[in-house]
Automatic annotation (TrEMBL):
The keyword Flavoprotein does not apply. Its cofactor is Zn(2+). GO terms for molecular function: DNA binding; DNA-binding transcription factor activity; metal ion binding. This is Fur-family ferric uptake regulator. Keywords: DNA-binding, Metal-binding, Repressor, Transcription, Transcription regulation, Zinc. Zn(2+) binds at C80, C83, C120, C123. Binds 1 zinc ion per subunit. The keyword Transport does not apply. It comes from Sphingobium indicum (strain DSM 16413 / CCM 7287 / MTCC 6362 / UT26 / NBRC 101211 / UT26S). Pfam families: FUR.
Length: 130
């Protein structure tokens, strides 16, 4: 097996996430890569995801234990419990307000995750049918 250039897997993972309607787990990304003829081990996918998350190109959705493309300015995510689609939300001042509230209480914040779960408009309207 030839060794891939650094970055090839980054591009592959970004393309797979970009083509998915829902956030994907490392296992799902590995399966899709394999189906496309690029076998990439799950451990390698995790390393790529970690790197892309640090670069703020990818966001981990904790509610789904999955990953989606990051949208600049997003500081919260809404996840549909029914169809698993996720939508980035941008609320000015949210991150700062949370950090201020925490530091006012002398809490040392290491990570900030704001996620909402519910039903998207498509899934809500489906429920309205008789
Ligand atoms: Zn939905």
């Amino acid at each position: 097996m030839t060794r891939s250039k650094v970055g090839d897997h980054d591009v592959l993972v970004l393309a797979i996430l970009g083509g998915s309607a829902t956030p994907l787990s490392a296992y799902q990304i590995s399966d899709i890569a394999t189906a496309r003829g690029s076998r990439v081990a799950v451990a390698q996918i995790y390393r790529v995801l970690e790197r892309l998350t640090k670069k703020k190109l990818v966001r981990r959705v904790e509610l789904l234990s999955a990953y989606m493309l990051e949208v600049e300015g997003t500081n919260a995510v809404f996840v549909c419990a029914k169809c698993r689609r996720a939508m980035g939300l941008a609320l000015a001042g949210l991150s700062e307000a949370l950090l201020t509230a925490a530091t006012d209480r002398h809490l040392d914040v290491e990570k900030q995750v704001v996620e909402l779960q519910g039903k998207c408009p498509d899934c809500s309207s489906t429920n309205m049918l008789p």
